[in-house]
Write a structure and sequence with these properties.
The protein is mostly helical.
């Protein structure tokens, strides 16, 4: 049985090897942005979840490594395109790919990463490969659906809490869930256990994204890895903003709507003003309560999973770390 730390080192080594191999291909202009993206690092949560889930049912985790890399490459592809759509300048404390290279380069290299992820996935030698490919494909479509909902929200003033939660389920949670179910499939878990791990991933993913929203507003930029207040500056319809508008007094709602309607403003002033209103309303505490609820549901599913506690311990520790992070 492996530890989270061992899996992280295994994943980092494999991704570095694959990334360096890509630099040997031409045209260099296509592969250099991919290498730059992958060498940025990151938490590598998704590939580690693949291996952890596989290890719940099998000691042969090496068989799941190509699938783990595939999911990480796919995840990084989505970040390339997300940063273009969000006009984000920083990713993991480095210039976003579209600024380091060009917007066209980020689009095309992102496309190549999406296909490269399938190339890695089909290296997997398992009788459950077709199931894994089907899950991967459905997940990829759902992530795109989630991104479209997120884009649609930009042009709407009113977005319900239910709509937002559906969006983050598709945009964020399903890939975490698919990582876990992929590992379970490759570990030859039965259908019930595979589906339970998928639902565990959904609940964990919802909590994780809401925590990410909190960090974007209330976190520390040096540890978070990207500019704090970016969601506020772009008028992103986060759960924080939705609940603030829902619970605001008339005076607070008027102030929020005025800031949302401004096209010219001092960025720091806008961040301070809206954060101040959030604090007055108690939005941070409200979202933290929902994070705790989703995390609790995830832990209940894991508790009931018919696997030894010693096997579940690393996954439980990683899930807890995900929800207590500062970056």
């Amino acid at each position: 049985m492996y530890s989270v730390d061992q899996f992280q080192k295994l994943v980092e080594k494999e991704i570095a090897k694959r990334s360096d191999e890509l630099l040997k291909h031409s045209p260099a202009e296509l592969y250099e942005p991919i290498h730059y993206s992958l060498e940025m690092g990151g938490k590598r949560l998704r590939p580690v979840l693949v291996l952890l889930a596989c290890n719940l049912f099998s000691d042969d985790v090496e068989q799941a490594l190509p699938a783990a890399v595939a999911i990480e490459v796919f995840h990084n592809f989505t970040l390339l395109h997300d940063d273009i759509m969000d006009k984000a300048a920083v990713r993991r404390n480095r210039a976003a790919v579209h600024l380091k290279f060009s917007e066209n380069s980020a689009i095309l290299s992102g496309d190549a990463m999406a296909f490269q992820s399938y190339k890695y996935l089909v290296e997997t030698r398992s009788p459950r490969l077709i199931d894994a490919i089907s899950l991967f494909t459905q997940t990829a479509i759902e992530v795109c659906e989630g991104q479209q909902f997120d884009m649609d929200f930009e042009t709407r003033l009113e977005v319900s809490a239910e709509e937002y939660l559906k969006m983050i389920r598709l945009k964020t949670a399903v890939l975490l869930a698919a990582s876990l179910k992929t590992g379970a499939l490759l570990g030859n878990a039965d259908e019930e256990a595979s589906n339970d791990l998928y639902e565990f991933g959904i609940q964990l993913g919802l909590a994780f994204q809401l925590q990410d929203d909190l960090l974007d507003t209330f976190g520390d930029q040096d540890t978070f890895g990207k500019k704090i207040g970016g969601d506020i500056l772009s008028n992103k319809k986060t759960y924080l903003l939705i609940k603030a508008l829902e619970n605001a007094s008339q005076e607070q709602k008027t102030a929020l709507l005025q800031w949302l309607g401004k096209t010219e403003f001092d960025p720091n002033q806008k961040i301070l003003a809206i954060t101040g209103i959030y604090k007055e309303i108690g939005v941070k505490e409200l979202v933290e309560k929902l994070v705790d609820s989703y995390f609790g549901q995830a832990m209940n599913i894991l508790d009931k999973l018919k696997v030894g506690d010693d096997r579940k311990k690393p996954l439980r520790e990683l899930a807890t770390k995900m929800l207590t992070r500062k970056k």
